[in-house]
């Protein structure tokens, strides 16, 4: 088989790239290791920057988001019970974010791919990349016990942190930067009305907590937990009691609890691998970088990578110009590192660090006091939260 672009990975990055290229008449084959049901069963974050909202609409994937998504113009930060509003729209000349689950984005992308008869191959096993440093790379995979080879012009590595693409870049070229945080997030989904109209980020002596939502009757809550914790250590009752402790009094009183329909613990890390390209291989999304979820940047960074990569591929196939492809890594990394900084700073400001006793605790408290007292500090946070320009 031959195609123009092989896309490895059918999460949001790969699906969005496949959709955009298809709309511009560029052929691609997407290889996803898991079944469609498995991919759609993943619970992920749900805050979309305007850049991603615009990309989904432009790719004919925005209809359900516009019907069911919730536009948010701000959020609250509470510090040991004292609640402060960050007015995103006021601080960013009218910008906002869209609350719409990544699961729904992925669902909409799969539906759009199906409607356009996109070439998406699920349960493609043992993907391997060859001749990336030449102008005729190829990809081998197995499906239903048979081996297949695809010759192509380019490979897009959209296969996440545990994928095969990043590892296909020679170790003497790859540079990795990582920070692992000494705690995790215990998250639950409950079919209950959200505790507040907007998100509440809570800094508390017991640890961080976040009140989020998917819709008017589906709430998403997180509490910072120990890396030693197991999901079975946390009954719903224990979770709700601890969450109430970490919320401001008014929110704790109005919190509607109910049975969890999903409960999981995720570790937090900051990770960047450079470069994001090698020969005809281009990495995008979690294949190249991981952010702690505190700033809700994971999906949004994948979107800006796909914006740069799809534009560069369209330029190449329109007029043979490889310039944007050659500077893709440098271009994408500029925005990646700024989002990495923001996610790191939000994580450092809001979480309890056991080793932070004394000076570290006072720095954290001062950081928050400065934020609450300074419009300049709030403007900086707001412009990063709604998304820096592409
Ligand atoms: N071959 C084929 N597919 C693979 C392989 C492989 N060797 N390895 C991984 N995959 C698939 C995974 O099954 C997954 O569906 O690649 C996809 C990668 O998707 P994500 O991990 O969701 O990464 P990405 O599409 O970049 O989206 C980033 O997803 O995980 C969240 O927090 C993250 O919000 C961010 C977003
Ligand atoms: C979520 O709704 O899952 C969510 C929202 C904001 C974050 C992280 C997660 O910063």
Structural write-up:
The chain is α+β, with helices and mostly antiparallel strands and 390 residues long. The protein has a domain of 227 residues: FAD/NAD(P)-binding domain (3-Layer(bba) Sandwich), CATH 3.50.50.60. 37% of the residues lie in helices and 27% in strands. It is built from 13 helices and 20 strands. The strands form 4 sheets. It has an 8-stranded mixed β-sheet. A 6-stranded mixed β-sheet has the order 8-2-1-12-19-18, covered by helices on one side. Strands 3-7-4 form a 3-stranded antiparallel β-sheet. The protein is globular and about 60 Å long. The model has no long low-confidence stretch (mean pLDDT 97).
Attribute tags:
binds adenosine-5-diphosphoribose; 37% helix; 390 residues; alpha+beta; six-stranded mixed sheet; 20 strands
What's the arrangement of secondary structure elements?
Blueprint: E1 5-8, H1 12-23, E2 28-31, H2 36-40, E3 47-48, H3 50-58, H4 63-68, E4 70-72, E5 75-79, E6 82-86, H5 88-91, E7 97-99, H6 102-115, E8 120-121, E9 125-130, E10 138-143, E11 146-151, E12 154-157, E13 175-190, E14 200-203, E15 209-215, E16 218-225, H7 236-246, H8 249-254, E17 260-274, E18 277-278, E19 281-283, E20 289-290, H9 298-319, H10 323-326, H11 328-350, H12 359-373, H13 375-386
Parallel strand pairs: 1-2, 1-12, 2-8, 5-14, 12-19
Antiparallel strand pairs: 3-7, 4-7, 5-6, 9-10, 10-11, 13-16, 13-17, 14-15, 15-16, 17-20, 18-19
Residues 45-47, 199, 210, 212, 220, 293-296 line the site of P-hydroxybenzoic acid.
